[in-house]
Design goal:
Layout: H1 3-20, H2 29-37, E1 42-45, H3 53-62, E2 66-70, H4 74-86, E3 91-94, H5 100-112, E4 117-120, H6 125-132, E5 137-142, H7 157-160, H8 163-168, E6 174-178, H9 183-192, E7 199-202, E8 210-216, H10 220-229, E9 235-239, H11 243-255, E10 260-263, H12 269-280, E11 286-289, E12 302-307, H13 314-321, E13 331-337, H14 339-349, H15 355-369, H16 375-382, H17 395-398, E14 403-405, H18 407-419, H19 426-433, H20 439-443, H21 460-472, E15 476-479, E16 485-488, H22 490-497, E17 503-505, H23 508-518, H24 522-542, H25 546-549, H26 552-558
Parallel strand pairs: 1-6, 1-7, 2-4, 2-5, 3-4, 5-6, 8-13, 9-11, 9-12, 10-11, 12-13
Antiparallel strand pairs: 14-17, 15-16
The structure holds adenosine-5'-diphosphate (ADP) and magnesium ion.
């Protein structure tokens, strides 16, 4: 360590202690702050509550001049500025909710009193550019940066204008921060903001204390009542898709003697803040809400989150379950999903400018719901954190399906993706593997590839299932922003080149389970058990893997 870096480290530790009152940095904060201070661009991906604000607030103090903070949440803007002022830091905010005379006072301050930080709503920033010319801008911070990307889950058109910032203030360092951006969105943020050479910091998204459970949504109310039996007065949130269902679920809970309240954007503001207060102060343990609830709520002892309906994408799901267990103690996320949820969510997406993209993310959400391997592995890989170990703290790890050695299938699929130069979406990859005689395959000359027809023996639907399993295991990734093409992850490369083994769920097993559950007569159960035994026997006689004999699809046909 050079003495110069030691000096700087001492300096930022001093700022941390004297201005913010903290003794040590949270994971990644120091690295991010040091990078910002060198004048480089930075992309910081850090979970909610991870301490993103400090990553631009501390450099703002270290730099000469003013840091401009773009933030979409007007309510949170005020909270942050109040907290900074309370710490004796000269900061202000500017947005359309302020009276003109207040706005004017802020601008006066900006040019005369050397504000260290100015928070601005993205819509308002262009009114101010003119004033920015008269001051020294040290840093531009874009909070909730996923809003800039149409691939993100909360796209705000006002954010797209922000790419002009880099042109207006060339050479001024930019830091973009967000809690939820899949890999595609991360790339898009860097491109959209023109953040050349941005250094990327992705903090771990793992919340090992959260037990993840996903179930089909039959008789959800009954399942919820069962779930709540052991929960006594613990705090929890039930998320519903519609305002109406928040009301009806809350009523049903109250009828069963639970203390619960509904919350949605249609309730008057005053009443909403009363409900929120009662929840935060443990007077109401259960809130049944739309996703309007929870943003900016800092409550550490939420013990469980239930999704009454499937969320519209994995980012939303992760953000919502992440509101439980912030104190690090065990917490539970329980999600229900059904075909009806999918239909409803499709309707919401239809006709919107980002329809295709939203539908692709919805598909991915459904694939996650139907996952046959560790949930946590699927989630973390989705956010670009490569994890190969099973977590042992989710429904699948607790009662795993039967697995087969899927190494050969996985190799075939990965090598097809590689030979297609990682340029094709799932449908085409499967067509090529199956040696389909369709026009598009021939137009592109794919019938000449070595990989063509290498998985002919596997039915289309089954192959699709295996691809989805590989997505959930973090072997493959979908690049939503580039026509949904499939790409390989580092794990895929280990499978192709280092002989890494892969387990895939045996697709016959879920079918048998369903039949067993439904079967009232012992006979039916017998039949399937015989089928299974027969399959094993035939496969071993023929010297082929069992999946070749019957598959999910063929069994369904037999039914
Ligand atoms: P995020 O924006 O990532 O959701 P915040 O910046 O709002 O998170 O920080 C969450 C909380 O953590 C705040 O109460 C903040 O004061 C606190 N915090 C941030 N950094 C530290 C630190 N190094 N030590 C202790 N507390 C911290
Ligand atoms: Mg924040």
């Amino acid at each position: 360590m050079t003495s110069q870096t030691t000096t700087q480290q001492n300096y930022i530790h001093t700022l941390l202690k004297t201005h913010f009152g903290f003794d040590s940095f949270r994971p990644n904060q120091q690295e991010i702050i040091e990078n910002v201070l060198t004048g480089n661009n930075t992309l910081a991906i850090m979970p909610t509550g991870g301490g993103k604000s400090l990553c631009f607030q501390l450099p703002a103090l270290a730099f000469e001049g003013t840091t401009i903070v773009i933030s979409p949440l007007i309510a949170l803007m005020k909270d942050q500025v109040d907290a900074l002022n309370a710490n004796g830091i000269n900061a202000a905010y500017y947005n359309s909710s302020q009276l003109p005379e207040v706005q004017e006072a802020v601008l006066n301050n900006l040019t005369t009193s050397q504000l260290k930080l100015l928070y601005v709503a993205p819509e308002s920033v262009w009114n101010l550019v003119h004033y920015f010319q008269d001051i020294e801008i040290s840093l531009i911070a874009i909070d909730e940066a996923h809003c800039i990307s149409a691939w993100g889950h909360d796209f705000r058109p006002a954010y797209t204008q922000l790419n002009r910032l880099q042109k207006e203030f060339p050479g001024t360092p930019i830091i973009a921060l967000t809690a939820t951006a899949d890999r595609a969105t991360q790339d898009d943020i860097v491109i959209q903001l023109g953040m050349d050479g941005a250094q990327r910091y992705v903090s771990s998204f793992d919340r090992p204390n959260l037990y993840l459970d996903v179930r089909p949504g039959q008789q959800r109310m009954q399942q919820i009542l069962q779930f709540l039996k052991e929960k006594e007065e613990q705090s929890g949130i039930i998320y519903c898709l519609s305002r109406k269902s928040t009301q009806s679920v809350a009523e049903k809970l109250i009828a069963k003697g639970f203390k619960a309240e509904a919350y949605h954007a249609g309730i008057e503001a005053e009443e909403r803040s009363r409900i929120q207060d009662d929840f935060i102060n443990d007077r109401t343990p259960i809130i049944v809400a739309t996703i309007a609830f929870g943003m900016g709520i800092d409550k550490s002892n939420v013990r469980w989150v239930i999704h009454y309906n499937m969320p519209k994408n994995i980012e939303g799901y992760y953000q919502e379950i992440g509101r439980s267990g912030r104190d690090g103690l065990p917490a539970q996320g329980l999600m229900f999903y059904s075909f009806a949820d999918v239909i409803m969510l499709r309707k919401f997406a239809e006709g919107t400018p980002t329809e295709a993209f939203q539908l692709a993310k919805l598909d991915r959400m459904q694939q996650f719901a139907e996952a046959l391997s560790c949930r946590r592995k699927a989630l973390l890989n989705y956010f670009g954190e490569h994890k190969t170990q099973d977590c042992g703290n989710c429904d699948i790890c607790k009662s795993p399906p039967q697995y087969i050695d899927g190494t050969v299938i996985a190799q075939k699929i990965c090598s097809a993706v590689a030979r297609l130069q990682e340029q094709e979406a799932m449908g085409m990859v499967i067509d090529v593997l199956r040696g389909s005689q369709n026009a598009q395959v021939f137009e592109k000359g794919y019938q000449k590839l070595k990989t063509f027809g290498t998985a002919r023996e596997i039915p289309w639907k089954d192959l699709q299932q295996y691809v989805i399993q590989l997505l959930n295991q973090g072997v493959l990734e979908i690049w939503f922003h580039e026509k949904g093409r499939l790409v390989l992850t580092p794990t895929a490369k280990e499978i192709l080149f280092d002989g890494k083994k892969v387990q895939l769920a045996d697709l016959i097993q879920p079918v048998i389970d369903v039949v067993k559950k439904k079967a009232t007569s012992k006979k039916r159960k017998d039949i399937f058990e015989k089928l299974r035994a027969l399959r094993t026997k035939l496969a071993s006689e023929a010297g082929v893997p069992a999946y070749v004999i019957f598959s999910d699809a063929s069994l369904q046909d037999m039914e």
